[in-house]
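User: Teach me something about this protein's shape.
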Amino acid sequence: MNVQTSESGYHYNVMRRAIELIDQGGESLSLEELARQMDMSPAHFQRLFSRWTGVSPKRYQQYLTLGHAKALLRERFTMLETAHSVGLSGSGRLYDLFLKWEAMSPGEYARKGAGLIIYWGWFESPFGPALVMGTAKGICGMAFAAETGEEAAMQDMLSRWPLADYVEDPMRLRPWVLSAFGAASDRLEPTPLYLIGSPLQIKVWEALMQIPSGQVTTYSQIAQAVGTPQAVRAVGTAVGRNPVSWLIPCHRALRKSGGLGGYHWGLPVKRAMLAYEAAQADA
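Assistant: First, the predicted structure itself:
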């Protein structure tokens, strides 16, 4: 963990409190009132948010409102077929992060992790405490514990590959984690992912990786992109079972109505991710 990621975690905790207040007071809540309720001066509050998002608290407040999802769907809807046709795939540059990935074979997946060594560690992220897991080939799991708690997040990840051997080794994962959260360094390698899932899940997760940062799609659009237009419910389940949140951006999947839908690690985290990306895109 470094100072930058520790500060990001602190900023998320501040923002999480702000989400609750904005939900209660809406966009009409002034900067002064918002800062007062969080026991901060307006100048300090504005400085924190501007450092984290690159935009003013008032602008960020607009991103956090529930209506922002509908605006995203209206203004920044991504057609996955178009993304695929221009060559976005697991071997190229995916959305805003440089990733490379490979998937476990169906036979290996059926063995539930038997014979696999999975390294794990806790890190601070822009969205609170993050549990990161990885094999020798790349990151295979990323969970966010701000809403669920660390114990629940850990048990959730362990249950996905119950026969694997788990080794705590955050230093082994640290370069990948720094790269995953956008640390600037010429020495960092592209973030490798090792996808452990069923064939349908892998197809759905690949489609998710084709959604550019700051844009969104719908569950039905994903179903069409993976060739199962009638299986929206199954696709929604696969989205929810995404083991590598943020890097496989399931937070960019919305309902047709513009509703957020669900999010495995808590809707405040999903809203924070969408707001964070929109702010970065507009900064």
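Now, about its shape. The chain has a mean pLDDT of 79. The first strand starts at residue 99 and ends at 103. If you'd like, I can walk through any region in more detail.
User: That's plenty for now, thanks!
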